[in-house]
Amino acid sequence: MTARPYARTQSLVWCEACGWNLAGTAKFLRADNQWLFARLFLLVPFTIPLILLFHTQDPFLAYGLDLLLVVGMFSPALVKSSANVKLARRIEAIQPRRSPPQPESWAPEPELQVAPPRPVRLVGRLESIRTQLGLMRLLWAIVFIAGLMALTPLAHAVGPRVQFAALLFVAFAILPLVGALIWVLAVLWRDRHLVMDGAPCAGRILLQSTHMRRLPGGEWTLVSRYRYGFTDPHGTERNGAAREEGRAIREGAPVTILDSPRDPRIHTSYPACLYSVAPGSDLIKR
Prior knowledge:
Elements: E1 2-7, E2 10-14, H1 22-43, H2 48-54, H3 59-92, E3 120-122, H4 130-151, H5 155-158, H6 160-197, E4 199-214, E5 220-231, E6 237-245, E7 254-259, E8 267-269, E9 275-277
Antiparallel strand pairs: 1-2, 2-4, 3-9, 4-5, 4-7, 5-6, 7-8
Helix pairs in contact: 1-3, 4-6
């Protein structure tokens, strides 16, 4: 297996011998290029107070500082995106020396054989909502800092123009913050419902992308994003997407999918759920 540092808390990982994660790593690099520039455009509104400060100076100096700000923001992304494309092409050109192992047969987890409603417990699998939690932290920081500059005595020190810009930040960040919170609550409700009452189905990994992430303690873990396909209890072919951490995943591998008995549009991968079946009891009372 080959591991290559990619960022301060990320490493790329693949196997040249059997071809595991070659396509997934190339896909990760190309997708990250899009996020490189998307993140920069998200940061553009935060430069407004700085630009307003520039334009209190000489006009020619202000426009020169604006240009330096834009170049400084986008140049690192251009350099890194070019390197990502070159590495993705090299990875796609690798020819594996042996075939990958044959996928094993599927069997549902023993705890899922308990008749619904099953006892459930919240577990520490946060990968499926990590993006939403990060967005909530960012939006809360914006609301808190902008609120200090707009709604406290600090507003008299920063001036009316910066105070107005801070009020705009508060106004535009409140609704996304509430939306992210509702999103997290909806995922919690979905996973609890599926683990408690969902029907386990045999699924297969269709596409996957895996990388390594450094944990706060300094250790590393595998993080996988994948698409799965399965046939629901009514015989309909369905597919979905999930994210999990802690194990290597490859195309064709079996995975347990929980399908809702109430709504066939609701389903998810059991290993990626925020809940699991609680041990010690096979029946619960509603």
